[in-house]
């Protein structure tokens, strides 16, 4: 389940008047620019590779890496989201929170996820696709709390004998389970953030399964 927690589906929204216009500027931006294995085209544009008029305001991306290993990043709520797929026809993105993904794949227990933020969408340009779940991610939890709720542990976690890393323990609770957790236990954690994910329709491991893509109608 761990890597599932990273994946979510976003719908990108454009007003009718913001559709692709065949004026001078957009004629010079009609050829998609690649970032890794993805072709980036309107309404998105890649900062540093394309002029801003090649995209729509608020849809700027950055491209990290080289060649086929490169990947586009979208910044939302102060966090970077790796884009795994773009469905232009259905106006949807398959993304993962880069910071959370790095933590869940780490075995060093030294990644700090306290800079995670609740996901918010500026200017109504994005929204979550329907039928997705969310959960409460509690971090910097007391080791006794983590040991009391072992099924909610995610990512790397401390060995009982390693007291120097007691603040790296993280719990992920589904929304319907959070009230059962109780405020007393929650107070024993350093912070919490609400994270959305695509649920069972999407999984990671040996590649991205895009069965969870929502069809926009």
Automatic annotation (TrEMBL):
Subcellular location: Membrane
Bilayer-crossing regions: none
Record bears the keyword Kinase: yes
Main location group: membrane
Keyword vocabulary terms for this entry: Kinase, Receptor, Signal, Transferase
Region forming the signal peptide: 1-21
GO cellular component, one term: membrane
Wall-associated receptor kinase galacturonan-binding domain location: 29-96
A Pfam short name: GUB_WAK_bind
Topology within the bilayer: Single-pass membrane protein
Keyword Signal: yes
Domain of life where this protein originates: Eukaryota
GO molecular function: kinase activity; polysaccharide binding
Protein name (Swiss-Prot/TrEMBL): LEAF RUST 10 DISEASE-RESISTANCE LOCUS RECEPTOR-LIKE PROTEIN KINASE-like 1.2 isoform X2
Species for this entry: Prunus yedoensis var. nudiflora
